[in-house]
Amino acid sequence: MGFVVRPCAVKDLKDIMRLVEEIAVIYNIPVNKVATSVEVLKKHGFGEKPRFECFVAEVPPEQKSKEGHTLIGYVLSAYTYNTWRGKNLYMDNLYVMPEFRGRRIGKTLASTAAMAAWQKGCTQLRMHASADKPENIEFLKRQGGENLTETEDWNILRFYNPVLRGMAAQSKF
User: Fold this and answer.
1) Global model pTM greater than 0.85
2) What SUPFAM superfamilies does UniProt report for this protein, alphabetically (predicted)?
3) Residue-wise over 21-30: b if at least 16 C-beta within 10 A, else e?
4) Residue 33's closest CA among 22, 43, 24, 42?
5) Which of 14, 38, 146, 156 shows the greatest Cβ crowding within 10 Å of its Cβ?
6) How far apart are CA 73 and CA 12, in angstroms?
7) Residue 131: phi, psi to the nearest 5?
8) C-alpha dihedral sign at 65, 54, 93, 48
9) Which regions of the chain carry the CATH code 3.40.630.30?
10) Residues near 163 by Cβ (< 8 Å), separated by ≥ 6?
């Protein structure tokens, strides 16, 4: 099977949203709860100060999906900073449509993001993975990822909008 991995373009954002919605369904998140949109992705990824970087996997038209799609996967990441290690890359999503898995597409997307991070001076790559999807954790481990929950007992915490708003209200800044 032939495929190419290339930087995401504005024209790809509708397909990226389709894939984001596929992920939401997999994790039982109602699609109407997904706050991201094509417009938001365009503003944050292609605006004056891009907030993320994205690469897409695309197959030729003769290998399109059952639904007729040629954009079949993506990796979306953002650069962050770690006080102990310096600049690093946080991969928020690495996704390949199920019918195209097992063909090294995910591995190629991840290595493409890693190369971009390496070229920009990053010291590490980070990604979270759901315990409900052990196959995803195993995939990341096969790529050389260390599961910090197992090795160092780290936990990832999230502060949703109402909590974030409450925390911000307490600021003296």
Assistant:
1) yes
2) Acyl-CoA N-acyltransferases (Nat) (SSF55729)
3) eeebeeeeee
4) 24
5) 38
6) 11
7) -65, -20
8) negative
9) 4-122
10) none
